[in-house]
Design goal:
Elements lengths: L2 H7 L5 H9 L3 E3 L2 E2 L14 E3 L2 E2 L7 E6 L28 E2 L8 E7 L2 H8 L7 E8 L4 H9 L13 E7 L3 E8 L6 H8 L3 E10 L2 E2 L9 E3 L2 H7 L1 H6 L1
Parallel strand pairs: 7-11
Antiparallel strand pairs: 1-2, 1-3, 3-4, 5-7, 5-13, 6-7, 8-10, 8-11, 9-10, 11-12
Helix pairs in contact: 1-2
This protein binds uracil.
Amino acid sequence: MRLDKFLCDMQLGTRSQVKDLIKKGQVSVNDTLVRKPDFQVDAARDHIACMGKSIVYQSLYYYMLHKPAGVVTATRDNHESTVMSLLPDASGKHLAPVGRLDKDTEGLLLITNDGELAHNLLSPSRHVAKTYYVECTGTLSADAVSLLENGVEIGDETPTRPAQVKVLTQSADFYTIELTITEGRFHQVKRMVQAVGGSVTYLKRLSMGTLSLDETLSKGSYRALTEQEIMALKPSKSSEL
Ligand code: URA
């Protein structure tokens, strides 16, 4: 692979930042300074150093898991089964779930060892959209919809940010909606529904940013993300390629 791509993958900076480092003579391959960003390296065999520090190659892995209910979103837990136990070939890859779904919540969970991507998706300032399918008991009035849409008090310092509500079905005491939120507060969807007089009986995450749950994945199964899915999650990097 190209030397600049290798350095980017190893999180040394953006494509333009690592190109600068290379051009300034800060990078060596097998103890020889290399000033060409497109210099080809064998990531697994060459000894690459930046500013005198060896860069140990670590591949980046990206998986989507169809999380079932009954497992906790954690890398380890002394009492409960974790989502990581559903990825048999996870060991040694330093994988971690991106964000958290409650034990009884199902649906899309991204699991990766790309810390930069995880940070970007979770950063409160980025307002990454997450869409949930929600089944609720209670009555959904027009006022309740507009509260959810405009921001509702859920007992925090500030009301929730505006959300999108798509009403799917509605009867006297039960309704289903798709709710898109751009924050990640604790039990946020359940608390939003509670704040408008309802109660969530089933919750499933359908998407996070550009990534949608692959509905061909059965509950508890996972697959690697495609190259397109990974690139779409990292728009700034793909535009630099
Ligand atoms: N909101 C919740 O209440 N629970 C989840 O698991 C995710 C979002």
